[in-house]
Amino acid sequence: MTAIKAHFDGTNIALDEPAFLTFQTKLKILIDDEKAVHEQPDNGKPNDLLSIFGKPIDMGIEDFAEQHDHYLYGTPKQLMV
């Protein structure tokens, strides 16, 4: 693993030194200072995903989890064993 110094400017992660990487190189970012990581600020707008998380809705479909591709994308139902 190679370490490259960078900083967060409030919007983007900016490299502090040149990095000669190939196109589409996947990166893993480790944060040195645990105090720097905090929860997303509450801007008064509900997060749609978080607002329904943990609130199951009975849709009356018994096999929804097993056949989700059928209900979401219209694929043929799969034979469940």
Strand-pairing-aware structural class: little secondary structure
> What summary fits the major beta sheet?
2 strands, antiparallel
Total of DSSP H or I helical runs spanning 4+ residues: 2
Low-pLDDT runs = none
- The string of secondary-structure elements, in order, is EEHH
Rg result: 22 Å
Overall geometry comes to elongated
Residues in β-strands, percent: 5-15%
Q: How far is the N terminus from the C terminus? A: 44 Å
Estimate percent helicity: 10-25%
Strand order of the largest sheet: 1-2
Overall pLDDT level? 79
Number of strands: 2
Description:
With 81 residues, this protein is mostly loops. The chain has a domain at 1-34. 14% of the residues lie in helices and 7% in strands. The chain has helices at residues 48-52, 68-73; strands at residues 6-8, 13-15. It has a two-stranded antiparallel sheet. The protein is elongated and about 55 Å long.
Name the features:
single chain; 81 residues; little secondary structure; two-stranded antiparallel sheet; 14% helix; elongated
Q: Could you provide a short overview of the structure?
A:
By secondary structure, the chain is mostly loops. Helix content is 14%, strand content 7%. A hairpin with a 4-residue loop joins strand 1 (6-8) and strand 2 (13-15).
What topology does this entry show?
Blueprint (H helix, E strand, L loop, with lengths): L5 E3 L4 E3 L32 H5 L15 H6 L8
Antiparallel strand pairs: 1-2
